[in-house]
Amino acid sequence: MTRVGATTGSIRCSRALMMLTLAFLCSVGACTRKQQSAPAPAIAQPAAVEPQVAAPAPSGKILDMMGPEWKLQSFDADQPVPADIRITLAVSVGKLDGNGGCNRYMGSIDNGAAPGQLLIGPLAFTEMACAQAANEAEMRYLRALQHARTFAVQDGRLQVGYMDGETARTLTYSR
């Protein structure tokens, strides 16, 4: 019987020891627990500023002309396109096309020997009957485009330099 009592005493002793150990650990934990403090007041952050993305600088390559079609504004500085005539130019890889004022036209286009220079191949076009004013503007435009040698894209405008006989002129387009 003493054995049973000894075992019971051991269990009681072990239980007491566990309780003391648990109490000790809890008190140590309370001492090392971080104090929670009130949240720090929020500091006003400056509003996020969206970075301004500049348009890419013109490269002097045909790539600069690609995108939405261009509408011809003038045959030269003091020679605007008549208001009732719409002449357009669209450029894609190696090709150009558009409306000459009455007929559709198409051809090839490539970079010239230096930036800002271009090479335009022979132009093909439909042959619909046109009003005389549209026909004259179209023929003038196609002749100018066929003689184009230089271009520049700047401030949303495309300027294409061509020779009209001995006179240098500039076709000016906008989008």
Question: What features would you describe in this structure?
Answer:
The protein is α+β, with helices and mostly antiparallel strands. The chain contains 2 helices and 10 strands; from the N terminus they run αβββββββαβββ. The chain has helices at 2-32, 132-146, and strands spanning 70-76, 79-80, 88-92, 95-99, 104-111, 118-120, 124-125, 148-154, 157-164, 167-174. Strands 1, 2, 3, 4, 5, 6, 7, 8, 9 and 10 form a 10-stranded antiparallel sheet that branches. The protein is globular. Residues 1-8 and 30-35 have low confidence and may be disordered.
Structural class: alpha+beta
The parts where pLDDT drops under 50 for at least 5 residues are 1-8, 30-35
Order of helices and strands: HEEEEEEEHEEE
Beta-strand content: 25-35%
| N- and C-termini, Cα separation | 108 Å
Helix content: 25-40%
The total count of helices amounts to 2
Mean pLDDT across all amino acids = 81
| Shape type | globular
Number of strands: 10
Largest β-sheet summary:
10 strands, antiparallel
Descriptors for this entry?
10-stranded antiparallel β-sheet; disordered N terminus; 26% helix; 10 strands; 175 residues; alpha+beta; single chain
Question: How is this fold's topology laid out?
Answer:
Elements: H1 2-32, E1 70-76, E2 79-80, E3 88-92, E4 95-99, E5 104-111, E6 118-120, E7 124-125, H2 132-146, E8 148-154, E9 157-164, E10 167-174
Antiparallel strand pairs: 1-2, 1-3, 1-10, 3-4, 4-5, 5-6, 5-7, 8-9, 9-10
